[in-house]
Write a structure and sequence with these properties.
- The protein is globular, with a radius of gyration of 19 Å.
- Helix content is about 60%, strand content about 0%.
- The protein is mostly helical and about 290 residues long.
- The model has no long low-confidence stretch (mean pLDDT about 95).
């Protein structure tokens, strides 16, 4: 599997374009994340099958509540110890339109983060034959539809600097974030987005870098992880993504091994503490979504 290969939205046609449109509509965000683009580029039939199996996870009221509580779990843990800084337009020396764009792009990441947390956990477990939906919820929210109003029309399409081409005014901060997360090269999309605004990028590391390296943020990540586990345990059904199910569907062992490794790395590897941090960055410019519902 060549993870440098991606099928971008502008290049997708036919049913692949349809899957992308469905992901965007279901995730409530104007973006198709890297995990979908690289899976589609390498194994398109599997990507389509995967989406058919996991899409219902994101369509319930229970998921809506999870997404709100995941966000709040992170922010409440941090706020119990420190005050999250608030950066206004004048602090960042940007034009009003640029500040609006910045906030809109971070709102998109804020919407997507809980969705990716669940996608990675459900898919990682299911691909390895581990339990999903071991203790199904029994209340109405478990199977009731996702509310139309939640996360509706919040974000803007993210733009970002190239994978490993940070300008001189952002390179030192990029290296600091890279060391913290343990990335060998490059950085996650959220940081490549933030690097477009070097003043904000630098301020976030200066003001919140010590928080990332503290027990406070470790607690925030643990609470987010607990929320994710509880939600996945309570799903009302189990996606058919185990090795035997995939073989029955016609996928070979090479593909199965590749996607197992990919989703395990995203669920348990260096990205594990990237997703909770997104809510801190969004909060710093007042772009977080609901925290109590």
């Amino acid at each position: 599997m060549d993870t440098s290969e991606q099928l971008y939205e502008a290049e997708a046609t036919g049913w692949k374009r349809g899957v992308y449109d469905d992901v965007q509509a279901t995730f409530r965000a104007p973006v198709v994340n890297w995990i979908w683009r690289t899976t589609m580029a390498n194994y398109p039939e599997f990507c389509r099958y995967l989406w058919s199996q996991v899409k219902p996870v994101f369509e319930t009221r229970a998921f809506g509540r999870f997404s709100v509580r995941y966000r709040d779990a992170v922010l409440s843990a941090v706020e119990s110890d420190v005050t999250i800084p608030a950066y206004r337009r004048t602090n960042l020396d940007v034009a009003p339109a640029e500040y609006t764009e910045l906030r809109g792009q971070l709102a998109t990441f804020d919407v997507v983060a809980p969705r990716l947390a669940v996608l990675f956990r459900v898919t990682n477990r299911a691909l390895h034959g581990e339990p999903v939906g071991a203790d199904p919820g029994t209340d109405c929210a478990t199977t009731a539809p996702f509310p139309d109003w939640l996360d509706a029309d919040r974000g803007r399409t993210p733009s970002m600097v190239p994978f490993d081409e940070f300008g001189e005014d952002a390179a030192e901060t990029a290296a600091a974030f890279r060391r913290f997360h343990g990335f060998d090269d490059g950085l996650a999309s959220i940081y490549r987005c933030l690097a477009q605004w070097p003043t904000l990028f630098d301020a976030l590391w200066t003001d919140l870098g010590p928080v990332l390296e503290s027990e406070t943020f470790e607690t925030a990540c643990d609470r987010a992880d607990e929320r994710t586990d509880a939600f996945v345990d309570g799903l009302p059904y189990s996606p058919r993504l185990g090795p035997d199910a995939l073989r029955e569907y016609g996928f070979d062992d090479g593909l199965i091994g590749d996607v197992q490794a990919l989703f395990r790395e995203f669920d348990e590897g260096a990205v594990d503490d990237v997703l909770p941090g997104i809510h801190l960055w969004a909060a710093s410019v007042d772009s977080v979504g609901e925290r109590d519902w």
